[in-house]
Write a structure and sequence with these properties.
Elements (H helix, E strand, L loop, with lengths): L1 E9 L11 E8 L4 H12 L7 E4 L10 E4 L14 E3 L6 H4 L6 E6 L5 E12 L9 E7 L10
Parallel strand pairs: 4-5
Antiparallel strand pairs: 1-2, 1-7, 2-8, 3-4, 3-6, 6-7
């Protein structure tokens, strides 16, 4: 089994609410689905998993992406743009999508607020000893964004 080291970064210029630079590193099994990875990302950031999400292959511009992985595609409800291929998030595995170190995707969470994070593969290792089936947060630097700030 492979373990993938994945970096998740905020993109302050794209945050729907004021946010700072925040980076967290996760180790996740290659057998994780993209849906599993999304939940691990949200847990690490401190967000509730209460909205739809997608991954896309152009982390700088989701509209220029050629490949998207959408939760809606799992339910037959995603309508791709011309020239796009859309996959679900339940079947593709981290080990397939992030097969090479350096692979980067955008992660959009909450189509209303449009939280966009950059997700990058930092490395892949064999896990012959622990055979872990859980995500593990390795580090976090900066202040995580707040999903539901108290404007009180």
């Amino acid at each position: 089994m492979s373990i993938h080291t994945i970096e998740i970064k905020t993109q302050p210029a794209l945050c729907p609410l004021p946010c700072d630079d925040y980076t967290t590193i996760l180790e996740v099994p290659g057998s994780f689905s993209l849906a599993d990875l999304a939940i691990a990302i949200l847990d690490a950031i401190g967000f509730d998993a209460d909205h739809a999400f997608e991954f896309f292959d152009n982390p700088r511009n989701q509209y220029a992406s050629k490949v998207r992985y959408s939760v809606f595609a799992d339910h037959g409800e995603d309508d791709p743009e011309e020239g796009q291929t859309v996959h679900g998030v339940g079947e593709p595995q981290v080990g397939e999508v992030f097969a090479e170190q350096g692979t980067a995707l955008g992660f959009l969470f909450d189509y209303g607020d449009n939280w966009i994070f950059r997700v990058t593969s930092l490395g892949i290792a064999d896990d012959t000893k622990t055979k872990s089936k859980k995500a593990r947060q390795v580090s976090a630097v900066g202040t995580p964004p707040v999903q539901y700030p108290d404007f009180g």
